[in-house]
């Protein structure tokens, strides 16, 4: 930070000094040295005043008058007595030059002359050019800084999307080159940790399958001796298997982000297909209102996973009713899934999208789940520039609203290739 401030101070200080010095030189040579009629006449009057000692020596074109012929102002009279050349103006705005001859009462008057040109426009033009040059120098100083900041933005976006192949090329002339290098080292470390975490989850999940398989075999051998105890232990083993499957599925999502297959498909038909599957194994009252022929440009497989998780979540926690609504609102496709369950408190609504977080603290087997379903929903929607919000349903429970960009929205197609 100190380096940044010192660099900015030096750039501004040196720029102002150079601009002021250059402006002063140009101003003197362009404005004050520019010839005009009045300035030349003033120089001639000075020479003429010093070269003549009598009125008869004046050229015939020079008008002469007495000091009493004009009502001079006191300061003008004082200037004449001191031998200065004074300037007066006619009603037409032309200048007259008057001076005393040899200290007497006789006065010589030259003119009329055109007045000196107004330098006000040139003055403001110089100021404008000076500020423009200063702004240009600041832009040149800011350009490497801006490029480094854009690189930091790009790297953070890559990390947020799970892309681990990051690279930064800090500018040598940037005031934050050290910060950029440190950020690159940190981002590389974070990417390495994320990669290690994925490998660890996969390795642990796979390695756990072998002892679980041995446990299931041993329990099957003991089933005849103590059926009740063996049944309880078998349920625990099944729960561990489900947890491992969920962890593997969530770990695969981190890798899947790099191989999404986008194409157009009928989202209305996809939602209806997931509802039909749910009705085969669920007895709750489903109220469905779907707008037909809604087209999406996305990865159909993972969007189907999102819809499946939201529907299963509503049926799991709803008491008897589930309402499903699909519509297009402006440039977004909205899927509303609401139930008549206990709902979710406002302070818990952001927490439920984190992995392994459940509103039900008891984690009883009756409700099931490991807190990964909504985390998967959030991750997939993030890939598709979508989001999910939780509100209070009119049925009394929770209302999940999924938003996805419509295929009619140009922003939804940006940076994607149609497969």
Name the descriptors.
single chain, 419 residues, alpha+beta, Heat Shock Protein 90, 5-stranded mixed sheet, 4-stranded antiparallel sheet, 11 strands, 51% helix, 16% strand, elongated, disordered C terminus, ATP-binding, ATP binding
Task: Describe the model.
One of its GO terms (cellular component) is plasma membrane. The chain crosses the membrane at residues 124-142. Its main location: membrane. Its EC number is 2.7.13.3. It is a multi-pass membrane protein. The protein is an alpha+beta fold and 419 residues long. Among the domains are: 37-113, no CATH class; 261-413, Heat Shock Protein 90 (2-Layer Sandwich). The protein is 51% helix and 16% strand. The protein has nine helices and eleven strands. It has helices at 2-32, 37-51, 74-81, 120-160, 177-222, 227-256, 267-281, 300-317, 373-383, and strands at residues 63-66, 86-89, 95-100, 106-113, 263-266, 285-290, 295-298, 321-329, 332-339, 387-392, 398-405. The chain has a five-stranded mixed beta sheet with strand order 6-8-9-11-10, with helices on one face. The chain has a four-stranded antiparallel beta sheet with strand order 1-4-3-2, with helices on both faces. A two-stranded antiparallel ribbon has the order 5-7. A hairpin with a 2-residue loop joins strand 8 and strand 9 (332-339). Helix 7 (267-281) runs parallel beside helix 8 and helix 8 packs antiparallel against helix 9. It is elongated and about 150 Å long. The relative contact order is 0.06. The model is unreliable at 361-365 and 410-419 (pLDDT under 50).
């Amino acid at each position: 930070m100190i380096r940044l401030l010192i660099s900015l101070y030096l750039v501004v200080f040196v720029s102002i000094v150079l601009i002021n010095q250059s402006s002063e030189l140009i101003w003197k040579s362009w404005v004050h040295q520019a010839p005009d009629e009045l300035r030349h006449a003033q120089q001639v009057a000075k020479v003429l005043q010093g070269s003549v000692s009598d009125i008869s020596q004046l050229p015939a074109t020079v008008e002469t008058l007495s000091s009493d012929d004009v009502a001079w102002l006191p300061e003008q009279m004082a200037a004449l007595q001191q031998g200065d050349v004074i300037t007066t103006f006619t009603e037409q705005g032309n200048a007259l030059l008057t001076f005393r001859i040899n200290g007497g009462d006789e006065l010589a008057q030259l003119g009329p002359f055109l007045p000196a040109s107004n330098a006000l426009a040139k003055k403001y033009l110089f100021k404008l050019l000076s500020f423009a040059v200063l702004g240009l120098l600041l832009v040149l100083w800011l350009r490497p800084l801006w490029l480094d900041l854009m690189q930091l933005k790009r790297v953070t976006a890559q990390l947020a999307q799970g892309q681990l192949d990051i690279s930064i090329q800090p500018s040598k002339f940037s005031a934050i080159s050290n910060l950029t290098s440190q950020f690159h080292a940190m981002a590389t470390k974070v990417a390495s940790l994320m990669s290690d975490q994925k490998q660890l989850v996969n390795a642990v999940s796979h390695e756990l399958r072998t002892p679980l398989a041995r446990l299931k075999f041993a329990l099957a051998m003991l089933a005849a001796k103590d059926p009740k105890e063996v049944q309880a232990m078998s349920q625990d083993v099944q729960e561990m298997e489900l947890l491992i499957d969920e962890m593997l599925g969530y770990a695969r999502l981190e890798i899947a982000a790099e191989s999404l297959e986008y194409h157009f498909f009928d989202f209305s038909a996809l939602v209806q297909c997931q509802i039909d599957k749910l009705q085969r194994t669920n007895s709750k009252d489903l109220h469905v209102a779907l707008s037909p022929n809604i087209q999406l440009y996305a990865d159909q497989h993972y969007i189907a996973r999102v819809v499946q998780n939201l529907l299963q979540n509503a049926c799991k926690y709803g008491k008897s009713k589930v309402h499903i609504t699909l519509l297009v609102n402006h440039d977004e496709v909205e899927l509303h899934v609401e139930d008549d369950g206990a709902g979710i408190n406002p302070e818990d609504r952001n927490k439920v999208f984190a992995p392994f977080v459940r509103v039900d603290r008891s984690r009883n087997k009756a409700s099931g789940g490991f807190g990964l379903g909504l985390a998967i929903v959030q991750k997939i929607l993030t890939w598709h520039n979508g989001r999910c919000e939780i509100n209070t349903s009119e049925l009394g429970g929770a209302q999940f609203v999924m938003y996805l960009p419509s295929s009619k929205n140009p922003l939804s197609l940006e940076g994607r290739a149609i497969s």
